[in-house]
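Consider the tokenized backbone below.
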């Protein structure tokens, strides 16, 4: 099979396993009276992202080829996800979180391992990773969207079957990993210190004022990343209790409506080079920050009936909010750091955004939602406006404080 097709299928399965539950799990937790714990379920992804990718990276570098470790991690992630599904099926709800946490702990490192496998395979084939990888990675988003639709159309949003679907996809990827290109491990003499292995050298970048400001604001904006993943589905489906909206498409198929966000994401990726060249890193990141303001504000103002256009617009805006921040930020890190620190700096960027930022964000969002919930009814509009106000504050502060040098992005 053509290498690009093989790697595209790997990415499809990689993100399909995540898409099976990431946007719908909140509705399931509401359904089993665990709504107050939604934040913890999403925050644990950030917690394990702080150390598990680094640990698995060491293993892949020194002992087990990346494609083999990718498969083993998915095997364990799938089995533990089955455990979470069984706990829900048998009504032993206290075991859902531990099983889910173990599954996520082995899944999160696979995001980096899948990239390593793709980069290694393309490099060995003499291809240009900058040119050839993005079209391959797009199939990951396609897989994510497809699985969101499967879970929605099969009626799995309010039950544990979404975990079963995720587990099945992970097991499939485990078997598929045996067909992937082989990756090398370090020679016996190529020993790195733990400081190097964990990417701790990148923390020296905090000595540079502009880089310190950049990473701090990356963490602050990272707070917004998982909020809608955790709470958008429960919010939209909560309109079922209002007769006027109970039969609307959004309430009946919240996952499909939310999937417009991922569709927008695939399109917005294509615009990043143009915006980076024309407006520069600071303005592109400001666009992302104010897009988050719109993302949250439109949720607060909209409804699944005559205001559904605001929900749709919020989904479209998401592509700008997510891509313009994550991808442009990654490019800025690549262009602003010494080659010897680039990999570590990328790891630090992920740590600040998807690790610390996302963890703080989901727990803070849960606290806000809990404080605005009375007798099982949540004042969602106020919550969304609070999130929007936070994003606005971050954007204005960033505009005043961040002063990058001219960075060429080609």
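A designed sequence for it:
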């Amino acid at each position: 099979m053509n290498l690009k097709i093989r790697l595209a299928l790997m990415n499809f399965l990689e993100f399909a396993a995540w898409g099976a539950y990431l946007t719908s799990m909140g509705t399931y937790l509401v359904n089993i009276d665990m709504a107050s714990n939604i934040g913890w379920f999403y925050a644990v992804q950030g917690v394990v992202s702080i150390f598990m990718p680094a640990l698995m990276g060491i293993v892949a570098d020194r002992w087990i080829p990346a494609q083999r470790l990718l498969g083993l991690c998915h095997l364990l992630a799938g089995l533990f996800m089955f455990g979470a599904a069984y706990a829900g099926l048998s009504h032993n709800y206290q075991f859902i979180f531990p099983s889910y946490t173990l599954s996520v702990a082995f899944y999160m490192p696979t995001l980096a391992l899948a990239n390593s496998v793709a980069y290694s395979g393309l490099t060995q084939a003499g291809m240009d990773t900058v040119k050839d990888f993005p079209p391959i990675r797009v199939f990951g988003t396609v897989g994510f969207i497809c699985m969101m639709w499967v879970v929605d159309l099969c009626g799995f949003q309010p039950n544990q079957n979404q975990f079963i679907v995720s587990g099945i996809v992970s097991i499939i990827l485990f078997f598929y990993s045996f067909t992937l290109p082989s990756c090398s491990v370090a020679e016996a003499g190529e020993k790195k210190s733990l400081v190097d292995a964990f990417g701790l050298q990148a923390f020296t970048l905090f000595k540079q004022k502009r880089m310190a400001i950049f990473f701090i604001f990356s963490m602050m904006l990272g707070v917004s990343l998982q909020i809608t993943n955790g709470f958008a589905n429960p919010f939209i489906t909560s309109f079922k209790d209002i007769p006027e909206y109970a039969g609307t498409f959004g309430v009946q198929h919240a996952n499909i409506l939310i999937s417009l966000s991922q569709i927008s994401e695939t399109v917005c990726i294509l615009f990043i080079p143009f915006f980076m060249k024309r407006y520069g890193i600071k303005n592109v990141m400001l666009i992302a920050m104010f897009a988050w303001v719109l993302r949250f504000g439109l949720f607060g103002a909209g409804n699944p009936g005559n205001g559904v256009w605001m929900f749709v617009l919020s989904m479209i805006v998401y592509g700008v909010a997510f891509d313009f921040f994550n991808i442009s930020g990654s490019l800025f890190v690549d262009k602003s750091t010494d080659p010897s620190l680039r990999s570590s700096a990328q790891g630090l960027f992920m740590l600040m955004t998807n690790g610390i930022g996302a963890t703080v964000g989901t727990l803070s969002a849960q606290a806000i939602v809990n404080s605005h919930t009375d007798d099982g009814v949540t004042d969602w509009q106020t919550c969304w406006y609070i999130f929007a106000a936070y994003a606005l504050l971050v954007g204005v502060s960033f505009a005043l404080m961040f002063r990058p040098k001219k960075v060429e992005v080609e």
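The mean pLDDT is 89.
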